[in-house]
Design the sequence.
């Protein structure tokens, strides 16, 4: 090729166009010619993932700790003592979980513990406030996080009315048993926020969320828009409540009382 | 004009050196935070914003407050403020610098900060706050610097600087409104979820900000040949008084709505702050100090005789500043996060390192104020504007 | 023409040039840069894309993989030859390249880059305290 000015300009033009195209969308920006991407063959999909927790079957601290252990070990969630801790799913009493305390409650409900986790809200305030789209909503209703992008401003923690989010105040690996890590999943780094991810990485390969799997059927996961799904069946047959419905965030986690 | 900051009396050097020492000394704490993370602060899973963001909020108020001088001067042609305008603008610059500093030290991954620009997200108020704060900084730098330069050369101010000054007046309201929107749009944080929060922010900014400015100007008069016009000072004191009345009034509106409606969510934070809740009463003495100081400051500012007493005025202003600082720099954040989403109380108190890092930023702000005010007063001395009757040259 | 403060300016320039050129002087006479020897996978001869592509563009590819899997929910990458791979650093790349120290670090150290991948992702060798 002649190194003429004309060729140079042509090259520049192409490069500029390429740059525009690359930044216009992440459509196969760099990958080799002819490559493409597609869904995993075993993935399970939904229009709106949701969860129903039968608190009669899973309503003690011990039972919920089993779920927490299952979740926290597949996701390498550190066990940090004190108030700078990280939790994806945990147990709390009725008054802490729901903002509609009743006087003279049924003793069994009063003493019951409830599994709390991110609600994957339809109108999620955490998504609304995040300045970098590090927290974002997937089309299937899951509120996901991109830890690579999070700047750790913690606006999402102030925005979440359910206390579902934790910040990595310190190096999380200091509080993990490094010999028993799940090597298929990353840890997090200091300075980012994290929370339950409804096990997106498992759904992509047809697996149920870890807590549901460990719950002996007390936690059921499925598509809320599918009238024949098991979650819908449970919602039809039982009276359920959600956390803080008055705030209009539309939680995707339902509790059978 | 920057060269004026380089030449000064030994006292000036001593002060600048002292500030540099403070900044250098405290930056060690920041290095430690960079290495270990925000775990060195008193913040927790439940109180996830603390002293840093509270100072940020308070200082946005200080930045916006310059408008209480700039607005009468430009919109009402109030000439008595002519020589104060530049100080209002320069104070705003220092305040925004400190605001940005407090944001930087607060975030967990500062090296990724540009993600806010790389992935612009208009639905996030933080994105807008970043825009308006940086815009305000630029406006004040541009207008302040240009006007001072023109003054020095005895030239009329260019027309565009006047237009930008008008813009900056509106802009000043926007910075504090947007900062209030950071808080008041969050569901489930009852202490913040109130339409009057932005108005409260502005009212408290427009009393505390000019009060701080006035205190600094009085100090400036002590150490330079600059002398502000007595009538200008008196007018500013009057403005401060009105703003403080409105500030207290707005707070009482909150109290009425919360307690007459008796809705638990609305009352709990206020009860926690002023009376204690669930066995926790960490902030009670502070909040009552704030309340008492607010009333005392009003008692000292409302009667014209007391307000115009130049000996008393600095004290009244200092009391006012303390009252508003406790309200906004302490109570606002802690009361907003308490009770937590689980109806529990999570006490928070800044750690020593957190305070050192804050001192680093306050030191930087003081340095910026010192340098900018030095330049401004020297130019005024050069042009003979607003000087003490018998200049006692050092 | 007279150069005011000429002495000072020239001294300044000399110092500046000296500092600026120091790295070159320091490296003079040293052997030219040679590419480090990487430990290649034993059972696998072909990577996801060509060697040249991987060498120059693996960082962009990883960025794309991150966004496609995390944000778009697509987990499978079909390369230019039609072969499929799961888009995962830990589950795909590091399954063949089983030694970060002998592979990634080699060039990264030479090029003095410290990508923060490993702050979160777990290297195949596992983590040590
Ligand atoms: S529960 Fe909190 S973190 Fe989860 S989606 Fe709702 S607002 Fe966001
Ligand atoms: S902490 Fe991270 S996820 Fe949360 S709002 Fe900030 S950038 Fe978004």
Sequence:
């Amino acid at each position: 090729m002649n190194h003429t000015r004309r060729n140079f300009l042509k090259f520049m033009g192409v490069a500029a166009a390429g740059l525009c195209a690359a930044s216009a969308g992440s459509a196969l920006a760099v990958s080799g010619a002819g490559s493409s991407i597609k869904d995993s063959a075993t993935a399970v999909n939904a229009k709106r993932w949701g969860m129903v927790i039968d608190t009669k079957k899973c309503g003690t601290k011990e039972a919920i700790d089993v779920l927490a252990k299952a979740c926290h070990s597949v996701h390498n969630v550190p066990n940090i003592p004190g108030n700078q801790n990280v939790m994806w799913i945990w147990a709390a009493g009725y008054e802490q979980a729901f903002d509609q305390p009743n006087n003279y409650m049924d003793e069994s409900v009063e003493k019951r513990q409830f599994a709390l986790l991110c609600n994957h809200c339809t109108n999620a305030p955490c998504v609304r406030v995040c300045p970098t789209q590090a927290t974002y909503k997937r089309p299937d209703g899951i509120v996901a996080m991109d830890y690579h992008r999070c700047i750790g401003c913690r606006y999402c923690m102030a925005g979440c009315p359910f206390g579902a989010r934790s910040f990595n105040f310190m190096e999380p690996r200091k509080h993990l048993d490094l010999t028993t890590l799940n090597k298929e999943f990353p840890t997090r780094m200091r300075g980012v926020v994290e929370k339950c991810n409804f096990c997106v990485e498992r759904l992509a390969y047809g697996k149920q969320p870890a807590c549901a799997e460990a719950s002996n059927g007390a936690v059921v996961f499925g598509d809320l828009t599918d009238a024949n799904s098991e979650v819908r069946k449970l919602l039809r047959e039982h009276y359920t409540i959600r956390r803080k419905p008055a705030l209009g965030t539309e939680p995707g986690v339902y509790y059978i009382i | 004009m920057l060269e004026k900051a380089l030449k000064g009396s030994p006292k000036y050097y001593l002060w600048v050196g002292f500030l540099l020492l403070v900044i250098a000394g405290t930056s060690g704490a920041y290095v430690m935070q960079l290495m270990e993370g925000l775990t060195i602060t008193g913040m927790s899973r439940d109180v996830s914003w603390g002293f840093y963001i509270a100072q940020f909020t308070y200082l946005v108020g200080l930045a916006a407050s310059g408008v209480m001088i700039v607005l009468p001067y430009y919109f009402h042609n109030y000439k008595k403020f002519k020589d104060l305008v530049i100080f209002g603008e320069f104070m705003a610059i220092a305040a925004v610098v400190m605001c940005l500093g407090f944001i930087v030290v607060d975030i967990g991954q500062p090296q990724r900060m540009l993600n806010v620009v790389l992935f612009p997200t208009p639905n996030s108020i933080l994105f807008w706050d970043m825009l308006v704060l940086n815009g305000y900084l630029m406006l004040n730098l541009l207008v302040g610097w240009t006007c001072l330069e023109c003054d020095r050369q005895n030239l009329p101010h260019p027309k565009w600087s006047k237009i930008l000054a008008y813009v900056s007046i509106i802009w000043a309201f926007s910075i504090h409104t947007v900062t209030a929107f950071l808080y008041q749009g969050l569901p489930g944080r009852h202490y913040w979820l109130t339409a009057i929060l932005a108005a409260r922010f502005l009212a408290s900014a427009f009393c505390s900000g000019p009060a701080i400015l006035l205190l600094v100007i009085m100090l400036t008069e002590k150490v330079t040949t600059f002398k502000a016009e007595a009538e200008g000072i008196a007018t500013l004191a009057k403005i401060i008084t009105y703003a403080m009345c409105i500030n207290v009034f707005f707070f009482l509106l909150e109290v009425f709505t919360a307690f007459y409606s008796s809705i638990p969510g609305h009352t709990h934070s206020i009860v926690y702050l002023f009376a204690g809740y669930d066995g926790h009463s960490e902030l009670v003495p502070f909040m009552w100090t704030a309340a008492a100081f607010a009333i005392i400051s009003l008692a000292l500012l409302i009667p014209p005789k007391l307000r115009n007493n130049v000996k008393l005025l600095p004290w009244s202003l200092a009391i006012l500043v303390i009252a508003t600082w406790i309200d906004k720099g302490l109570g606002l954040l802690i009361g907003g996060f308490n009770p937590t989403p689980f109806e529990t109380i999570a006490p928070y108190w800044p750690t020593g390192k957190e305070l050192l890092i804050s001192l680093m930023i306050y030191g930087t702000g003081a340095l910026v104020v010192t340098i900018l005010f030095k330049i401004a007063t020297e130019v005024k001395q050069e042009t003979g504007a607003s000087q003490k009757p018998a200049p006692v040259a050092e | 023409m007279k150069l005011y403060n000429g002495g000072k300016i020239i001294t300044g320039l000399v110092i500046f040039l000296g500092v600026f050129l120091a790295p070159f002087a320091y490296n003079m006479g040293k052997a030219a840069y040679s590419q480090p020897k990487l430990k290649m996978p034993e059972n696998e001869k072909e990577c996801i894309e060509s060697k040249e592509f991987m060498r120059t563009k693996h960082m962009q590819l990883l960025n794309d993989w991150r966004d496609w899997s995390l944000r778009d929910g697509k987990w499978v990458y079909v390369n230019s030859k039609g072969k499929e791979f799961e888009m995962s650093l830990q589950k795909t790349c590091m399954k063949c390249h089983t030694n970060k120290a002998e592979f990634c670090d080699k060039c990264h150290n030479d090029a003095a880059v410290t990508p923060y991948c490993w702050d979160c992702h777990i290297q195949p060798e596992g983590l040590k305290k």
Observations:
- The radius of gyration of chain B is 21 Å.
- Residues A 129-132, 134-135, 145, 150-156, 193 surround iron/sulfur cluster (ligand 2) (CB under 6 Å).
- Chain B has a mean pLDDT of 93.
- Residues 7-383 of chain B form a domain with the Formate dehydrogenase/DMSO reductase fold fold (CATH 1.20.1630.10).
